[in-house]
């Protein structure tokens, strides 16, 4: 492969595939090697689908890599980082996408002054629309930051925040998609109670949500869009008033807090 930047993915699951397929579509000069530990069939499948190299022994590919991207489970990190530690060179960048593994953890586990970054994408990386948040370690060079931005940009929009904010806001960018899908399920159930088929209920609700998301994408201001649909004293206003009576805002706030509390418990465990 005659390409200038080599990225080694440790982990070959859904998130790794979303990221490297985005990179391959958008960037020309990245060479990609993808590794896992057990699932040989998965590597064969990926090699057939994409212009990548694959390996079941990633340690041999570290030396030639500019960037090592950890896309394995959080629980695998301790062992992977211990193996990586003696292999890492000063000019290499280590990125993780694992929940709960921030730059300070990576910097402690790797040689002093290693360049590290923490990227927290969401499942929409699959369709190139992940709203990702990220925090950078203390030793990244300008060139590494530029490369990191290209990698992140390959799966959607992104925002740099502090390490603590990645912990706190993963509830919004990572978990709240599940809240939204749950909202869709609830509306589907409500639609079904009016005597239409499941397929009709699904079409009505999904297309309404997709159309509303497109309006948000175009106009960017949810309150204004809501007001356009809500004539004072009208039918929609009665629906919104019911949501308010049932404390819609504080309900969502509580869901975010509960998500963060559980993430903290899991982090300690
Ligand atoms: N999916 C999401 O929406 C999402 C969002 C944000 C962050 N993340 C993070 O992304 C990471 C990967 O998630 P995923 O959804 O892609 O998981 P996944 O589909 O389960 O993939 C995990 C991959 O890691 C490999 N692996 C496990 N232990 C390994 C080891 N010791 N050495 C090398 N490879 C190893 C697995 O293959 P083998 O078992 O064959 O080794 C598998 O290819 C996780 O840390 C997760 O927290 C995921």
UniProtKB/TrEMBL annotation:
It catalyses: L-proline + NADP(+) = (S)-1-pyrroline-5-carboxylate + NADPH + 2 H(+); L-proline + NAD(+) = (S)-1-pyrroline-5-carboxylate + NADH + 2 H(+). One of its GO terms (biological process) is L-proline biosynthetic process. Pfam families: F420_oxidored, P5CR_dimer. Residues 7-100 form the Pyrroline-5-carboxylate reductase catalytic N-terminal domain. NADP(+) binds at residues 10-15, 71-74. It is found in: Cytoplasm. GO terms for cellular component: cytoplasm. Pathway: Amino-acid biosynthesis; L-proline biosynthesis; L-proline from L-glutamate 5-semialdehyde: step 1/1. Residues 163-265 form the Pyrroline-5-carboxylate reductase dimerisation domain. PROSITE patterns: P5CR. Signal peptide: none annotated. Keywords: Amino-acid biosynthesis, Cytoplasm, NADP, Oxidoreductase, Proline biosynthesis. Belongs to the pyrroline-5-carboxylate reductase family. NCBIfam families: proC. Catalyzes the reduction of 1-pyrroline-5-carboxylate (PCA) to L-proline. This is Pyrroline-5-carboxylate reductase. It comes from Halalkalibacter akibai (strain ATCC 43226 / DSM 21942 / CIP 109018 / JCM 9157 / 1139) (Bacillus akibai). The lineage of its organism: Bacteria, Bacillati, Bacillota, Bacilli, Bacillales.
């Amino acid at each position: 492969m005659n390409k200038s930047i080599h990225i080694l993915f440790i982990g070959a699951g859904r998130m790794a595939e979303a990221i490297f397929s985005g990179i391959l579509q958008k960037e020309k000069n990245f060479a990609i090697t993808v590794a896992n530990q057990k699932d040989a069939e998965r590597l064969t499948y990926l090699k057939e689908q994409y212009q990548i190299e694959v390996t079941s022994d990633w340690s041999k590919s570290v030396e030639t890599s500019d960037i090592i991207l950890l896309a394995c489970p959080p629980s695998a990190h301790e062992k992977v980082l211990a193996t990586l530690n003696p292999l890492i060179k000063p000019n290499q960048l280590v990125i993780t996408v694992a929940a709960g593994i921030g730059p300070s953890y990576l910097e402690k586990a790797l040689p002093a002054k290693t360049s590290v970054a923490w990227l927290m994408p969401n499942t929409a990386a699959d369709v190139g629309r992940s709203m990702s948040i990220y925090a950078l370690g203390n030793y990244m060079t300008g060139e590494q930051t530029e490369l990191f931005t290209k990698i992140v940009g390959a799966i959607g929009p992104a925002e740099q925040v502090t390490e603590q904010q990645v912990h706190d806001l993963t509830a919004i960018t990572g978990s709240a998609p599940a809240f939204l899908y749950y909202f869709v399920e609830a509306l589907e159930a409500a639609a079904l109670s009016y005597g239409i088929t499941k397929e009709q209920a699904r079409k009505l609700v999904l297309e309404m949500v997709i159309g509303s998301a497109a309006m948000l994408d175009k106009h960017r201001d949810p309150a204004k869009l809501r007001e356009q649909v809500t004539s004072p004293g009208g039918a929609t206003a009665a629906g919104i008033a019911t949501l308010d009576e049932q404390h819609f805002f504080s309900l969502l706030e509580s869901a975010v807090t509960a998500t963060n509390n559980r993430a903290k418990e899991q982090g300690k465990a």
